[in-house]
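Review box. Two proteins, two foldings.
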Amino acid sequence: MRVSLRHGRWAVLAAVGVLALAGCGSSGSSKGSTASGSGGTSAAGSSSSAASGAKSWSKEPAMTIDPGKKYTMVLHTSQGDITIAMDAAKAPHAVNSFNFLAAQHFFDGSYCHRLSTSAGLQMLQCGDPTAGATPKATDGQNGPGYQFQDENLTGATYPAGTVAMANAGPNTNGSQFFLVFGDSQLQPAYTPFGTITDGMGVLAHVASGGISDPGQDGTGRPTIPVELKSVSVTAS
């Protein structure tokens, strides 16, 4: 089964062996915080969408992280905190992007828009800044305006606890990511940039509630809503 980003940009195909992640809506198409070392001037061309209020930038933020340091990201969700140890050495562009976006409060108030509980793909997908409490057709199509390169793909696997980038094809990473809560059969096509160190129980709880109005691929909004109240990134 394959996964690809919706409308070719942020959709995700759920497939065993070949899975491309992005947005997945209930229609069935694949569809306050602090951060260290980043600020509003790190990326050029900042703008906001009048329709969604989401910020966007014309290019990837300048590299401000130190790949030699350890970075921790905490997702402060409505169902509890999820703590992620980020791999800045192997995925510096991904870590730098999350560091920047967290400082911009980019994710605050958005909802995780896609849950998969199949044997070949057990994950929760988040990161569309326009995904709100009420599902809509455009959920899973949106990002920060810029894209960045794939990283850390050689020999990549996706066991439970993996955090990786959703994409619409090679080198199309934006802000959408997925949290793996059960071993998933994916080809090495999604940049793994972190490991969950605390909060797997949150994902198990969300998965236990099932999927509301599953789409044709069996994925969709989690019945138990997950709001990203804020996201923080710290370095040590």
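Next protein.
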Amino acid sequence: MRSIRISTPAAGLLAAAALLLTFGGPAPQSSLGAGTVSAASAEADTAQTGSPYVSTHLYFGTGRHDGKPPITDEEFDKFIADVVTPRFPSGLTLQEGRGQWRDKDGDINRERSYELTVMYPVREARARNADIEYIRRLYCTMWELESVGREDVRSQVDF
């Protein structure tokens, strides 16, 4: 591509036009197809849909220390049934994964892991926090583990 130097007041406008022609500009809403909404209207719709909730994600590892065997699927399922479900009977989501983390000795551990997601209304956050911390402490105590990761995300939820 050839470079052209223009030294008129319109140089900035021409440069912007050249960039738009080269890389494309924003598409008009009408050309995006049916069902497409703008960011502003999506934000407005989201603000009006659902109720304020907290989505808590817990990250459970299954590897153990000192040569002990990993936590089995059956052991983990029993923990969910006996400990988690009674505290969150309305529902939960469980995903299996592979994770890694650095332990207190600086070693990198790779292990099968689970991500558990529970959602609850913001107004229940204080009471649910006690349940979540109980779950985390018990899992670590039962299996002699260092930690269960936790992430809390505020969201708008509708069922």
